[in-house]
Amino acid sequence: MTERPSGAAGLHVAVDVHYLDEVTARAAMVAACDRRFSVITSSRTAIVPALAPYRPGELYLRELPPLRAVIPVAGDLALIVVDGYVDLDPAGRPGLGAHVFAEYGVPVIGVAKTAFRTATHAATVIRGQSSRPLYVTAAGMTAADAAHLVRNMAGQFRLPDALKRADRLARGLEPPDADPAG
User: Fold this and answer.
1) Sheet strand arrangement including 123-125
2) How far apart are CA 55 and CA 69, in angstroms?
3) What digits encode the pLDDT tens for the residues 160-171?
4) Measured between alpha carbons, how far is 108 from 150 in angstroms, rounded to an integer?
5) Tens of pLDDT along 41-63?
6) Least crowded by CB within 10 Å, which of 11, 28, 76, 112?
7) Domain CATH code at residue 38
8) pTM value?
């Protein structure tokens, strides 16, 4: 797998998944041409079957299949930001982001809103006026670089705008961009 230099151009995506019920999930993706996600250039959603039940520490079994429906497989993919952890402990037990990294081969940043008890290695990032940290992990780049990137992503609140928009799309609270092919 080839890693890009830290300032490389390409498609940067942020993704999230929301469960509509026990058997159906909506995955969402927002894309930008820069690592700060200063301008969202496109978005996409897909409704797919939820194939696995939730099990702590095994979120990837449930979330990776829906994410495959929205993460581009072709083109110039440079970075993927996931809502969750890349690894679940300092020894590197793989979380959702590690599985995304293994599948797509580009740097992945995990941004979690809540602490996972074994993820003591996660970098904490305070954004905006919030006193509650985000927990940042990464693959394909250092945790320090990932934390710096998350700290400087577009948006003035705790959660970067790209992740907030991916969450709203996944929840069906706003529509994705129109499909130019459709």
Assistant:
1) 40-49, 24-32, 11-19, 77-83, 108-112, 134-139, 123-125
2) 21
3) 999 999 999 999
4) 12
5) 999 999 998 777 666 666 777 78
6) 76
7) 3.30.2170.10
8) 0.89
